[in-house]
Fold this protein.
Amino acid sequence: MATYTVAALFPHFDLRRGLAHEMAFDMVHGIREEMRRLDLDVHFYDKHDDSAHFWRKGYRSYAGVIGFLAWGDPAVTDRWKALARKIPAVSLFHRVPPAGNAVVNDDAKGVAMAVEHLVREGARSIGFFSLRDDVHTRRRFAAFRAALSSRGLTLRADRLCGVTVGGRADAIASAAANIPRYSTAERAFIRTTAHEYLASRPLEAVLCENDYLAYHLIAEANACGLSVPEDIAVIGFDNFRMIECIPALSKKYRPLLTSVDLDCFAVAREGVRLLYGMLTAQLPLRGNTVVIDPTLVVRASSCRRSPAGNGPEQDTFKARVRVFVKNHYNDPSRLKSIAEDFDMTYRSFLQRFKREFSVTFTDLVSSHRLERAAHLLEVTGRPITRILIETGYGSYQNFLKFFRKRYRLSPMEYRRAHLGRRQGRG
């Protein structure tokens, strides 16, 4: 098999900080795993590298390029277009014509699922909260507007923040354009903006353009004496979970956030496959677009109604408990408050639970977490670190101990065993 060397561009990320940014973490792992499988060599470029040299002549050392850049910057887009005329190039999360080789998410589908969920939870006055009027915001806001219209809900300008409506530039977006991303100044600006937004608008729910904004909105709601989701439901976009690894932040930003999962790992993996197809002449050099379907991960921040839902099957204690555990198994603080949802003391709840299930509540939660973790190990290539976070484990040591006890294998051994079985069937 021929071996190619390709470049992976992440000029706005610090890849040397490991888990500091979950989006980059997942994409890097997706690229590395698929590159290894296809016998490709990869060189990563991040904010520490001389990107100017790469654009000028450094690209000549590579057979192709895959990248996630600041697509809202016209200069970046122009450089990418020029590069795509010289070597095979695949962009992640944004399609850049005319070559248009890209792996993107179906943002419209993700927004539609989020709005539908909020409507089912009883929300009718739904707002949209953003900060920067960039390409991602415009795409998600257009989907938000369409989702409201399809459900007969009114789009009101006073429920919006950070988006352009009717051709008029938004004052918040204009001010944010001059503030460095992820800086102390930006965090202060977000909190001030969120405070004014919550104080001046009668809202039942808010869809935030990304999780970073959603977590800050929740923190400000808590500071203003608003209860999430009882007073206001919040949904984010991206499904970033690394914030829960930092105790101070995980305690501050509660409850856990419902979010649209973009599956950055899958996006990066499919990007490598697309690039490989172009390098080996299995695909044309332009016009290749792969769309990844998002999923809505429902957690406590949007569940305005009882966790048991509204179906007839929820009439029994056991059914209600099962649905609660399914919805909140990865949120330890929410699990501790389960008795409140049943109007019982915690001791009375545990006694009734033991009578009905013949096991302890802890055993049921642990079983659900392990089954979910095993499923993710079987069907996804997500890093084990992310899987243990997603399933509610606070440390790798605990996860490893319980997983070994249940499956007689380590998580990595379990994944390899099931990968071998799938390949055998293929």
